[in-house]
Amino acid sequence: MPKILLFDALREATDEEMEINSKVLVIGEDVGHYGGSYKVTRGLHAKYGDLRVLDTPIAENSFTGMAIGAAMTGLRPIVEGMNMSFLLLAFNQISNNAGMLRYTSGGNFTIPIVIRGPGGVGRQLGAEHSQRLEAYFQAIPGLKIVACSTPYNAKGLLKAAIRDNNPVIFFEHVLLYNLQEDIPSEEYLLPLDKAEIVRYGKDVTILTYSRMRHHVIQAVDILVRQGYDPEIIDLISLKPLDIDTICTSIKKTHKVVIVEECMKTAGIGAELIAQINENAFDYLDHPVVRLSSQDIPTPYNGLLEKATVIHPQQIEQAVKDICSLVV
Fold it and tell me: Is this structure's pTM higher than 0.70?
């Protein structure tokens, strides 16, 4: 199995799907000649030309709307946001068009579109480039939302998203593009609606996704050496949440820690707590613990930026605190 960087895994997925299906195309700023801001589309323009790797003006609402119209005609566009924060300019198109048209047309149209790009808190990118929009989009009916976290799941999930007949918002973390991993050389797809059990354990269920998966693993490596046995679940699918996998774990551990980079107020963690209370409340021996980012615009200052997000030491302490409960 060859080692591959996450951005190359995404490029391979896109290339493979474009090669087997002439209806797949890429639309976005600098995706063509430049190869994308993070080189996810590097080399694709030379291979497929202007009509299938289309450089656009800086007008997110226009090219996202164009891509949705293309999807209505049977094409399968992949929209790359140079930064996912910029797609707030296309919020109307994503919510009122991509999410609704299949329903408001009585099923006459499907919208097989993937909207993908980098997000999350980087390294001093400033407030407008450090947003986490997953909770913004989670409230929109008709969308599927996926957050990749490794080269392996990035490739398998993107291929599945391109083939899906529904609009998929595909989140990539700006600090994970250079993550390297062995992945299979043969083709594979991963389900868009399933969580991944990263580590089995019996003491506490840790729910996380995207970059925080790696912070959790760092914390758990230390906790295991100290005698704790946490279970780690990477949500992968943020909409719909894989509540069956989550509840199965809670029935075993009876304790939950949520670790997210999303904002605390009305974030992914808030929805998780609501669904856990609805589906697994009787199995809890302790209130759900939520570790989330501060409810402030991300500062540019490096030290202040670091203070706004969760780190492995905080995860380690939260697990120790919740496991100290005597029932």
Answer: yes
> How many helices, marked H, and strands, marked E, lie in the chain?
12, 14
Report how far residue 30's alpha carbon sits from residue 200's, in angstroms, rounded to the nearest whole number: 42
Q: Which of 12, 29, 129, 196 is catalytic?
A: 129
Q: Do 153 and 190 meet the contact criterion of CB atoms below 8 Å apart?
A: yes
- Which residue in the list 12, 60, 271, 305 is annotated as catalytic? 60
Strand order in the sheet with 230-234: 196-199, 230-234, 204-208, 256-263, 289-293
Domain boundary among 182, 205, 232: 182
Catalytic, 80? Answer no
Residue range(s) defining the domain that contains residue 244: 196-323
Q: What is the DSSP letter of 94?
A: I
> Which pair of structure tokens corresponds to residue 55?
């450089």
Find the helix or strand (DSSP H, E) in which 275 lies: helix 268-280
Given 156, 182, 208, the domain boundary residue is: 182
**Which of helix, strand or coil describes residue 179?**
coil
By CB atoms closer than 10 A (0-12, 13-18, 19+), residue 50 is: exposed
Q: Has residue 188 been placed in a domain?
A: no
Mark whether 129 is an active-site residue: yes
pLDDT digits (tens, 9 = 90+) for 68-109: 999 999 999 999 999 999 999 999 999 999 999 999 999 999
